[in-house]
Amino acid sequence: MRGANGDRQRMPEILDAVERAEPPTDPELGLTTVHDPADVHDPGTADRPGSEGDEIGTAAQRPPPGVAHSSAVMAIGTVFSRATGFLRTVTIGAALGTALLGDAYQAAEMIPYTVYELLLGGMLASVFVPFLVKRRKRDEDGGTATEQRLFTAVFFALLVLTVVAVLCADWLISLYAGEYEGRQRDVTVLLTRLLLIQVFFIGVSGVSGTMLNVRHRFGAAMWAPVANNLITMAAALFYLWLAGAGRTAETVTDGQLTALALGSAFGTIVQSAILAWTLWTAGFRWRPRFDLRGSGFGEAVRTAVWMMVYVVVVQAGVLVTANVATRAGDRAAEAAGHPVEGSGLAVYKFALVVFQLPYAVIAVSVITALLPRMSSHVTDGRRDLVRADLSRGFRLACALLVPLSAGMFAFGVPGAVAIFSHGSTTPDGARRIGLILMVFAVMVVPFTFHQLLMRVFYALGDTRTPGLIAIPAGIAQAVTAFALLVFVPARQVVIGLPLSYGIFYLLGGVGAALVLRRRLGGMDGRRILRTLIQLHLAALPALVFAAATVLAVSQVPGEQLSAFLALLIGGIGGGLLYIVTARLMKIVELGYFYDLVRSRLPGRS
After folding, report:
1. Residues 6+ apart with CB under 8 A from 297
2. Is 2 helix (H, G, I), strand (E, B) or coil?
3. C-alpha–C-alpha distance, residues 599 and 363, integer Å
4. Against a cut of 0.85, is the pTM above it?
């Protein structure tokens, strides 16, 4: 954990080193903001797994120097949050498997977060953080009345929303799993009703986190999901002990499912309690206020309408993906005449969590360091410096992400077998996770590029362009997903779904790059392209070595042992080969990380 903390603290130093090593740019003035960037709060990726923290959104409101809760606390908390979130995923997989029962749980789990994000969470993340910051500075009472009104409005809106959502669970299942019927549908509806109780507590976490954010109290928002993850893991293990491995939708009992769902919901309750208690220790005392007229809430929402468009389009993509994946899994089971491992939503969700790990650790560190730099350059109107920062950040991130995506491709199957093949998840189901992960691996760089470009727009105070770009990209994603369902055998649909996911970010990234190229007077495209080619060439020998290792050790008796040896030998050997090849090719971007590691060796400062 100390290493992750240090890397985040030193990332600005690396960016400074790159800037010193590169020729200075001629000043290019004339960069103007669309709106006040202070009115824009970063919504993060907008499609992150609901139980995990929002690293990007919090990074956008980094604490000023001298604040006790430093970025070090945030960094360590983020690592623990992601690590326990990953273990939570593995544990759920071991408990429920990757057939229809696992699909049912994954569909039921994502619905509360999507309902909350669409109807309230998006506004809290992108609208009310900057709104409260301004009111705390402007109002005579330091924004106290505004906070009381906001908490009151959210509290009672959550009560109504939760009750309505629970009553509409059956209808919501029709949206997410339209072809489920019989016992499969009953199981999914039961899980959904129980997990929808979380909507209220997710919302309490959201509003508490928002108000802690404006107080520059970030630690709890990073650490509270850890408690949630640990409790959900305990609930999954209890279910596994209670029901045993290999349960199906037909053999599992309502009592066993209730124990699992209520245990998971209890994790969310504890998370919200931690954040609410932290807010209380920060001095907030809730006194209900219903005088919302003239509060300025309506104006705040109107200023961020395009940010909400972006959030809605992304969440619509989540809905389409879930719908296609659940239909494909159901059709595959119907065609086979029995539950089929790894054909539905569960394996897709498991692979997605693994796919997002490198971005969460590496790209988030780069973005966190870039945000204050870009904001400063935007204030000065310096197009050249914003362009240079974007180029440096992307090239530095890719120096680590390119080999990791290659490793994800090479070790997708053995890695998934080693990690997920436990309990109710069979080796066949784990292999399916690995195949999906191999397709996701191709999307690592486009996904990161898109996210970096979005940060530039937000630094410019422009939410309209990302919203407009998202619409055609979202349509393309939906068309691709449904085309897979129509033209591809049901068993193989889920393997192609990462292509649909990637199309959104690829098209969105291209559209964003074309717009920013005009605003910034270029994108430093030649240097970026040259670096990407060099990095992929440097990763090629490592990829070949890794693939050869996987093939060679596949002859070792025991699938788990074979998978572990592939990861160990291929990972270490491939990593060293990439470093050596990159140094022989004199790829400067990797050299800065090499210098960072060397400076941390004993005896060096």
Report:
1. 131, 149, 150, 153
2. helix
3. 22
4. yes
